[in-house]
Specification:
alpha/beta, Rossmann fold, 3-stranded parallel sheet, 18% strand
Length: 85
Amino acid sequence: LFYVQDESSMLVAHALNPQSNDMVLDTCAAPGGKTSHIAAMLNNTGVVKAHDIYEHKITLINENLTRLGLTNVQASLADASTLNE
C-alpha cells in the first residue's frame, strides 16, 4: 500500500529521523500523510500522537491509518495552541 506525497512533505519525516520506540507529536495532522510516513519509519513501534481540531479530519486520519495497516498512531481531537504536555 502507498500514500502519495510530494517531496517536501516526505522530507519532514526524514529530517525528523524517528527511531524505534520514539514518541512523536504531530499537530495539524490531517489528512495523515506525514503522520503515516513517520509511523511507517518507526516500523509500527513507538507512538505518533496525531492531533487536529476538526473531528472529520480525525476520521480521515484514522481511515488512512487503517488502510495502511499502521497501529502505532493515536489520533485525537486537540488544539495545539492549548496542549500542556
